[in-house]
Amino acid sequence: MLIKLTMLLIFFAVMVAIGLYCRKTASDVNGFVLGGRSVGPWLTAFAYGTSYFSAVVFVGYAGQFGWKYGIAATWAGIGNALLGSLLAWVVLGRRTRIMSQHLDSATMPEFFGKRFGSPSLKVAASVIIFIFLIPYTASLYNGLSRLFGMAFDIDYTVCVIVMAVLTGVYVIAGGYMATAINFIQGIIMLFGICAVILAVLNSQGGFLAALEGLAQVSDPAVSSAPGVFASFFGPDPVNLLGVVLLTSLGTWGLPQMVQKFYAIKSDKSIDAGTVISPLFALVVAGGCYFLGGFGRLFADRMEVVNGVPVGGYDAVIPTMLSGLPDLLMAVVVILVLSASMSTLSSLVLASSSTLTLDLIRDHLVKGMSQKRQVLVMRCLIVVFIAISVVLAIIQYKSNVTFIAQLMGVSWGALAGAFLAPFLYGLYWKKATRAACWTSFLFSTVVMTANIFFQASFPALLRSPINAGAFCMLAGLVLVPVVSLLTPQPDAALVEDAFSCYDRKVLVRQREALGDGEKAG
Q1: Is 377 left (phi over 0), alpha (psi -120 to 50) or beta?
Q2: Nearest to 258 by CA among 29, 382, 85
Q3: Which helix (H) or strand (E) segment is 96 a member of?
Q4: 383: pLDDT confidence band, cut at 50, 70 and 90?
Q5: How far is CA 229 from CA 207, 247, 299, in A?
Q6: How far apart are CA 83 and CA 71, in angstroms?
Q7: Among 410, 395, 452, which Cα is nearest to 130's?
Q8: N or C end of the chain: smaller count of CB under 10 Å?
Q9: Using an 8 Å Cβ cutoff, are 256 and 410 in contact?
Q10: Contact, 376 vs 155, CB < 8 A?
Q11: What is the pTM of this model?
Q12: Residue 231: CA atoms inside 13 Å, Cβ hemisphere, count?
């Protein structure tokens, strides 16, 4: 217990120190929200990765999908690395940075408003973010409850409040730069997941022995094929594909993820991020899902009824970790804390900046000074964190499932609404505001209906995971179709937005060859 508490106190002290250190960069809106658009390569890459993964992935998704699909769940982590990180940086990184600076937009709703010349579009995007990010924020605490209950004799409510206060301190003090410079969380996540995987596999006699044991596991309710949980694609490749699409392609439309590209400093940062972020995702996400794939080997330590753990899928990972030494258990707790606090800080910063800049400043209290805008954002961070804490505690104490269910559709609603309009807005001049409205309405209506009328959906789309993936793919079709059928956008507005890509810039000779120059 002394080891665990000591490591926790050191971790908390470092988090607070980073927040206070970054105060000088958060004096104006540009500095508080985007770090002055001067975040270097390593910090940008780690900020992207640490915002991507949280306790939801470590405890919830890894346990649930590892139990359902076996070792094939690792495909979700591979998808996160290739589609959610590598391709996202290649396709979105440079263009997002250039156009967002040209349009002077600090948030995703502000980008929509200026790119498509529609203030109402900006307000709608702000409302969608406000509605669906808060329950997502509350859900981050869920995975911590079992781990803290197993590692410490501390009430879950106390743990949630302490985590929320510490997150609030370093985000309120340091803004975006505090979340970016906190690469120590990424280092903890990288080394922590490797240590945990080795320890868990060791407890089963090593990798080959664990894989052989998994091949002996059978569940007639899932599949009659022998060794299916140790197979390449698992017992249900169709639903596994839905998981890969939602958790990977979804990052392209999430405001807290896309905003990382707004803050990029230079081409060097993009080049480094394109390499570092996928490697980070491969180790962290791939490691999590790979670990969860062996969950059924620990079924003898859990009560399983009809093929499902009695404590829910969230019980799988904590059960797998329950036999670890105290020192490694402390590393696990700090690992999940790091992941959750980094994601939480990105979410509350995205929520507060959107509400302040896109609703309050432009529509309710016009003429706000920079200092006042930053103050309002800091106050709203407190409000968002407080609401998420209350929701998390209510869910934990009274077993209210509605919040958790809403969290499941929030990723699909946000990514489904924003992915296609944002992508086409960066690349295609003919995208229209009507097409944006169509994407916004389609995804939010479908995902909300999935909560209340799930039984009315086709069997494949009753899962919020598959419904979210469907909304994202549907948006990629709806936006171009509706754009071609509706009045074309204002030519001057579009040309001005895309003129940023044609602007000539000077670079050093070592970075690019001049016209007529030959490479040595």
Answers
A1: alpha
A2: 85
A3: helix 94-102
A4: confident
A5: 15, 21, 14
A6: 20
A7: 410
A8: C
A9: no
A10: no
A11: 0.83
A12: 17
